[in-house]
Design a protein that fits this description.
Blueprint lengths: L32 H7 L23 H25 L4 H25 L31
Length: 147
């Protein structure tokens, strides 16, 4: 799953060169949804590593995990921007990103649901209640290893 086979170095952490394509323009005060999700904070200046440690880099193993990672990243970005906008309601950049990420999040959630089944109870499709069917989004295919 996402946390399996993670090469973690507690001293140096990870190089983020693999995230180059996900990084917002340098003049933006916000990180990309993916990098913000991994760091736990979408605002560039607010990230403070604990004791010189850095975030884990997740390694999705297949298309399903990659899509779930994107869904989680955009949901995180929306929530983080919501908190930011509560305190800074006049920030147009944040509001525009919020709208953009909300639209992308809905698209990704719909795509995931269409391909792999519901993410939430409210996503009813077809004539059967499929919420209880395995695998759950956090299960390994064919197993029950939880994240």
């Amino acid at each position: 799953m996402l946390f399996d086979n993670v090469n973690w170095n507690p001293t140096t952490g990870f190089q983020i060169s693999e995230f180059e394509s996900m990084i917002q323009p340098s003049n933006s005060k916000f990180l990309s949804p993916e990098e913000g999700f991994l760091r736990g904070n979408l605002i560039k200046e607010e990230y403070d590593a604990y004791k010189n440690m850095t975030f884990l880099k997740l390694k999705p193993e297949n298309e399903r995990e990659q899509l779930l990672f994107k869904v989680m990243a955009y949901c995180f970005a929306i929530n983080d921007l919501n908190l930011y906008l509560d305190v800074h309601p006049e920030d147009e950049e944040a509001l525009n990103l919020f709208k953009k990420y909300a639209k992308e999040s809905m698209k990704l959630e719909s795509e995931y649901s269409d391909k792999y089944g519901p993410l939430t109870l409210k996503e009813i499709q077809g004539t059967q209640f499929k919420w209880i069917e395995n695998p759950w989004p956090w299960d390994k295919v064919g197993g029950t290893n939880y994240v």
